[in-house]
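Summary of Year 1 activities. Much of the first year was spent building the evaluation harness for sequence design. The harness presents a backbone, in tokenized form, and records the residue chosen at every position. We chose the following record to illustrate the format because it has been used consistently in internal testing since the harness was completed.
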């Protein structure tokens, strides 16, 4: 792998990125189309620099382009650096390692957002981040799989359970996993995806904050994903939330399943966005049965149905969010902070609810928040 300088050098060989095209517009303007991200960008540019862009074909060095067009090195370098910054062009030396990587498609996806000079740094941050997956069942098995297929290499898996036949209808397990601990089955899958993953397993229940304190060592490069559902999703996620807020670790609540709705999110950046406890307080107010004049019908031993695609939808979205949090780059920011989603099986629609920070939250209000929104 090769790291590359932020600013273009005169010996660089540059080409238009494969997913980018451009057309000429009136009044010396050119318009870029970024096919993968469906963005457009218009620039006003002199005719000589337009000609330079035409010669950026992956064969000519910038020195040779400057010579052919009789323009100064500095003008061409400034123009090229700007094009690199907005991911319109890439330097061959900065991206050729992608072509030989088994993660080529993942890297090309990142390159749509991250300029060539930062791509290796961002990729290293994914590899370096420890992903703590609490609960390795219906949702957690999909989350772990998704993160590993996007380049995650360091995992801590926490789950006390053993795979049984009835898990196969919604989890990413198969018959060969039956009788093995879920962490063992997920770890085996991760090693099959990438041989040099590092997996730590804890086959224990998380029932209280002290359990997490005992098992998980807080780290700077760490993301926690809560997929636990015992004794229920909210109580389990709130325990993970307390641990993460206390230790300033980003958290994704992968959600759960209720009344034919897959619940997704929210994710939490402690000190910056609403925590999970904020969301519970907000939902209590927003969905107050007295205010809505509905009756709650408590029922014991509810046996809720679920199918694998629903768990996979929640798990896939949570795994993308975990990668965004691991990157910590504003060019590809997390999207589920302050938002809780529902995927409705009946019409296959998504519905997202904004969750504002709560100024009186007992878990996170001591952190240095901006004033709470109302
Ligand atoms: Zn809070």
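For this record, the design step produced the sequence shown next.
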């Amino acid at each position: 792998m090769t790291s590359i300088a932020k600013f273009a050098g005169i010996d660089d060989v540059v080409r238009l990125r494969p997913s980018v095209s451009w057309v000429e517009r009136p009044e010396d303007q050119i318009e870029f189309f970024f096919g993968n991200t469906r963005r457009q960008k218009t620039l006003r540019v002199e005719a000589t620099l337009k000609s330079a862009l035409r010669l950026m074909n992956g064969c000519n060095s910038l020195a040779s382009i400057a010579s052919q067009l009789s323009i100064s090195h500095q003008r061409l370098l400034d123009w090229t650096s700007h094009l690199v910054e907005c991911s319109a062009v890439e330097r061959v030396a900065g991206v050729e390692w992608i072509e030989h990587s088994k993660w080529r498609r993942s890297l090309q996806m990142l390159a749509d957002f991250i300029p060539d000079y930062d791509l290796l740094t961002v990729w290293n941050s994914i590899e370096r981040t420890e992903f703590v997956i609490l609960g390795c069942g219906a949702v957690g098995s999909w989350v772990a799989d998704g993160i590993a297929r996007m380049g995650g290499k360091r995992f801590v898996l926490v789950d006390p359970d053993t795979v049984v036949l009835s898990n196969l209808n919604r989890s990413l397990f198969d018959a060969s996993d039956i009788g093995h601990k879920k962490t063992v089955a997920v770890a085996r899958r991760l090693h099959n995806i990438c041989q040099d993953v590092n997996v730590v397993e804890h086959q224990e229940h998380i029932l209280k904050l002290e359990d997490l304190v005992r098992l998980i060592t807080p780290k700077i490069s760490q993301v926690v994903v809560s997929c636990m559902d015992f004794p229920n999703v909210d109580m389990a996620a709130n325990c993970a939330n307390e641990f993460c807020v206390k230790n300033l670790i980003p958290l994704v609540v992968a959600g759960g399943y209720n009344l034919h709705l897959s619940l997704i999110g929210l994710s939490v950046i402690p000190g910056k966005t609403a925590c999970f406890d904020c969301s519970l307080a907000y939902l209590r107010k927003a969905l107050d049965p007295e205010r809505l004049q509905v009756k709650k019908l408590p029922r014991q031993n509810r046996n809720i149905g679920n199918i694998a695609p629903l768990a996979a939808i929640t798990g896939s979205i949570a795994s993308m969010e975990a990668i965004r949090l691991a990157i910590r780059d504003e060019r590809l920011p997390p999207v589920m902070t302050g938002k809780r989603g529902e995927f409705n099986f009946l019409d296959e629609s998504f519905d997202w609810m904004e969750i504002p920070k709560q100024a009186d939250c007992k878990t996170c209000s001591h952190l240095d928040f901006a004033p709470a929104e109302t």
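Residues 129-354 form a domain with the Rossmann fold fold (CATH 3.40.50.720). Quantitative recovery figures across the full test set are reported in Table 2.
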